[in-house]
Write a sequence for this structure.
């Protein structure tokens, strides 16, 4: 038959072109236990070790490739569960994205021993098939087996630490991840976008699980983070049927150590809620809005007690009453017009705030920068309230306001309202500053409403008093207590600084947090120099101004030019084993946040140019064991080297047969570290 | 509301220009490409005929299995005998290691006894990217009016070995339906195989 001849010919051709390609991945089957009792669950693991540059695929291979498949041949009474897939990496080449494992992966499968399983030395066989790719792709196949002793005993295997390490790389399946998804906009043929909103700040991407009826495209668009949530926009392409009701996958983020961590997400995709504003995510405005307006009103009201405002009330009301003794109605009318003046000023302020916000719209306000600006702003407000420095309107503006206000009648009342607001600036500025800060996160309508309400609060006493001038006697008399009140208000502001600072912590590395704190202190000092010597000073004000700028400037420069970081990978026995297997020297630093010696050592002897260069030359691996919190594995390791605690710095020579060099306890010098590295490289 | 529409449109546009403007139910994108014998082919040349595009790379075990077992050649023979135009699209870039220059390609064609109409030399990746070809094999079936009727996997069996004849072949189904003037039942599936080795 022609077909048969063709097949033989093709086999020959195939052999000639491809037959010599050997697969590069090694597979073996390991168990978490050597012995187990009926009824127990043992974790099996298919370990795939890929050659350098080769990869195998995740449960969703992505644009190409095929996920690894495991078929079990198990004795009666043992049932295999689903593969537990560790978090993959996302690999893009020539516009195609795949989810892959490089170097090594342990695919864990729970094996459940039923009560009636026959005891003995049982053979467990796994038939594994995979696709491994580098520049070319090769289909891999292996039949791997191992034995398990089923009987009266339970005994963990020597590989248990490998299982523990890989368990950490599995996506978390807990409720702590607050996620929801909703469709965005309309459909474009077979494509439709949805937004996945996750309530955790350090997530970076979403890897979808595969589905027969639709495909979630690999490209992830991260929307600006806001209010403690991160949002991803993904495109869905459907093959058949209706739009998917549910989306499943893992959200992936980076832990502080640089390790990828993931959490499983399984949420329904809701239809989009009607969007009424320009913001990309619907926000529940109604409840907080009412609350915000109440606070705005109260804020405006409190402003009246500020040292700059209270004396003015009494004067102004007396002024009205004097002018219009004959007509109480006129007084009332003027009071209302005065209120209008105040509101008009606040409207201008609202306009400025919105304008500023729109202008910076193009800058794509990254949440981190906003939080930093907020923290600085609130700190300055607190310092202002403490009296460290003042905020005043320019003399010209005051003169102009004064002239307008001296007009009699309606115009006069109106401009009196404006003047009152202007005069109140030194005291209102702090609070308005905070209000403006929050205004940036709200749509224009809210900004206007809030500021107008504050204006109402400020004008309220005037209006009330213009209706009932005799209530003037209930007004608190101006006095020294006003100044004390102002300073007291500074403390809630400081608390706000602390809260705002805490919010920035999520975005900063440990050393960045330190420098930001130092910067805030320097800023406070600069503010004091400005207030004391420039504003209140008599001579050498220019010099003082310079000094003020210098203090903050120096700190900023120091912060920005701090040393570059080394690539620290998290320490684990396997990481050490792996690096030794690769013939690379290893620098292990066991450290903790609270260990001052460790921090000094890092800054003076490890994270310095000469050591960094040497590490690069030796192609060394740098591992950090963070002992800031109790860690049994690290405690064990420290004990091995006879140490009760940190610091402990080890240098493993590249020759795997040689033991690690233990650096002396206490303070290190660059020479000690360099000598050890020299020995390790020889 | 406007903002979200423009966003979706922009997103789709970006995806489309970066990769694949071919959508089932819409007219298939026009292309102009040379085959390994130097002849130029345009999609519009074949108006009135059913056209099958097959992204091809013998170095990929999935693709190779279809040819080694003879299943693909049989399918190509059956299709071309019914008047279908079957174009192999080889989008492997010159540096990819899977590139075949026209001479090598012709030899491979003869050795494998390929029964397609022509082997398009798409080392620039233009046609592949135009259609959004992601894997080898990745199949596209275009009806007589130039509308894309099917895109996706060749069958429901993503295996690098064994007999593809035992699988449900989506291309055979789509072509049969089109020949009878009926509507194609399965219009889209996720293609399987190795990634197309574009311009590397």
């Amino acid at each position: 038959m022609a077909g048969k001849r063709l097949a033989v010919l093709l086999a020959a051709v195939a052999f000639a072109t491809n037959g010599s390609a050997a697969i590069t991945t090694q597979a073996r089957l390991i168990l978490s236990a050597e012995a187990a009792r009926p009824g127990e669950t043992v974790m099996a693991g298919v370990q795939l070790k890929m050659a350098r540059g080769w990869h195998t695929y995740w449960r969703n291979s992505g644009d190409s490739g095929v996920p690894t498949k495991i078929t079990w041949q198990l004795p009666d009474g043992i049932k295999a569960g689903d593969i537990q897939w560790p978090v993959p990496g996302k690999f893009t080449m020539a516009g195609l994205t795949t989810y892959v494992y490089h170097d090594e992966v342990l695919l864990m499968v729970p094996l459940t021993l039923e009560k009636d399983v026959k005891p003995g030395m049982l053979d467990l066989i796994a038939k594994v098939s995979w696709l491994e790719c580098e520049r070319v792709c090769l289909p891999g196949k292996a039949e791997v087996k191992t034995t398990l002793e089923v009987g009266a005993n339970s005994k963990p295997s020597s590989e248990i630490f490998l299982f523990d390490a890989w368990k950490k790389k599995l996506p978390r399946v807990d409720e702590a991840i607050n996620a929801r998804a909703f469709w965005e906009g309309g459909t474009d043929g077979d494509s439709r976008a949805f937004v996945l909103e996750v309530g955790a700040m350090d997530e970076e991407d979403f890897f979808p699980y595969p589905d027969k009826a639709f495909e979630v495209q690999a490209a992830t668009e991260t929307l600006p983070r806001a209010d403690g949530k991160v949002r991803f926009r993904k495109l869905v392409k459907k093959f058949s049927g209706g739009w998917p009701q549910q989306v499943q996958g893992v959200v992936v983020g980076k832990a502080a150590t640089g390790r990828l961590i993931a959490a499983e997400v399984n949420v329904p995709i809701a239809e989009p809620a009607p969007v009424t504003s320009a913001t990309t995510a619907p926000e529940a405005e109604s409840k907080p809005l009412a609350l915000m307006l109440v606070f705005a009103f109260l804020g405006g009201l409190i402003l009246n007690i500020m040292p700059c405002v209270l004396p003015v009330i009494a004067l102004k009301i007396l002024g009205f009453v004097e002018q219009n003794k004959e007509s109480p109605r006129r007084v009332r009318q003027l009071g209302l017009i005065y209120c209008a003046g105040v509101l008009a000023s606040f409207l201008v302020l609202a306009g400025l705030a919105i304008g500023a916000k729109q202008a910076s719209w193009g800058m794509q306000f990254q949440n981190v920068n906003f939080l930093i600006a907020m923290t600085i702003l609130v700190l300055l407000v607190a310092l202002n309230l403490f009296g460290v420095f003042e905020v005043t309107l320019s003399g010209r503006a005051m003169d102009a306001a004064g002239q307008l206000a001296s007009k009699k009648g309606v115009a006069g009342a109106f401009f009196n309202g404006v003047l009152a607001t202007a005069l109140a600036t030194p005291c209102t500025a702090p609070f308005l500053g905070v209000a403006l800060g929050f205004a940036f996160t709200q749509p224009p309508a809210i900004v206007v409403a809030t500021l107008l309400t504050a204006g109402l609060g400020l004008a309220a006493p005037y209006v009330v008093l213009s209706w009932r001038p005799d209530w003037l006697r209930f007004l608190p008399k101006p006095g020294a207590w006003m100044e004390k009140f102002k300073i007291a208000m500074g403390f809630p502001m400081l608390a706000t600084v602390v809260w705002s600072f805490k919010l920035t912590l999520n975005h900063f590395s440990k050393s960045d947090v330190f420098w930001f704190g130092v910067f805030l202190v320097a800023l406070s000092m600069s503010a004091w120099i400005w207030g004391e010597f420039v504003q209140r000073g008599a001579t050498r004000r220019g010099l003082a101004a310079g000094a003020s700028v210098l203090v903050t400037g120096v700190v900023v420069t120091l912060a920005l030019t701090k040393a570059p970081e080394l690539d620290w990978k998290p320490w684990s026995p396997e990481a050490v084993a792996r690096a030794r297997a690769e013939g690379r020297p290893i620098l292990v630093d066991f450290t903790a946040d609270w260990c001052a010696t460790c921090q000094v050592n890092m800054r003076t002897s490890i994270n310095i140019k000469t050591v960094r260069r040497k590490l690069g030359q030796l192609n060394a691996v740098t591992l950090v064991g963070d002992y800031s919190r109790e860690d049994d594995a690290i405690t064990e390791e420290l004990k091995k080297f006879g140490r009760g605690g940190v610091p402990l710095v080890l240098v493993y020579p590249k020759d795997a047969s040689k033991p690690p060099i233990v650096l002396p306890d206490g303070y290190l010098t660059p020479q000690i570290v360099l000598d050890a590295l020299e020995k390790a490289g020889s | 509301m406007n903002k979200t529409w423009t966003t979706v449109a922009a997103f789709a546009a970006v995806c489309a220009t970066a990769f694949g403007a071919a959508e089932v139910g819409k007219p298939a994108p026009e292309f102009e490409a040379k085959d390994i014998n130097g002849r130029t082919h345009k999609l519009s040349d074949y108006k009135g005929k059913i056209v099958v595009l097959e992204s091809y790379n013998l170095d990929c075990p999935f693709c190779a299995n279809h040819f080694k077992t003879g299943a693909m050649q049989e399918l190509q023979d059956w299709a071309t005998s019914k008047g279908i135009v079957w174009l192999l699209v080889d989008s492997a870039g010159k540096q990819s290691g899977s590139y075949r220059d026209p001479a090598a390609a012709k030899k491979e064609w003869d050795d494998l006894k390929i029964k397609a109409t022509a082997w398009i030399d798409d080392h620039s990746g233009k046609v592949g990217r135009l259609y959004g070809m992601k894997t080898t094999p990745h199949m596209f079936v275009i009806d007589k009016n130039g509308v894309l009727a099917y895109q996706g996997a060749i069958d429901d069996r993503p295996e690098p070995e064994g007999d593809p004849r035992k699988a449900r072949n989506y291309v055979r189904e789509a072509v049969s339906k089109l020949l009878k003037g009926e509507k194609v039942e399965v219009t889209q599936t996720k293609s399987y195989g190795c990634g197309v080795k574009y311009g590397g």
Notes: Chain A has five domains: 22-167, 179-270, 286-366+391-481, 508-560, 568-681. Confidence is low (pLDDT under 50) at residues 12-20, 275-286, 360-366 of chain A.
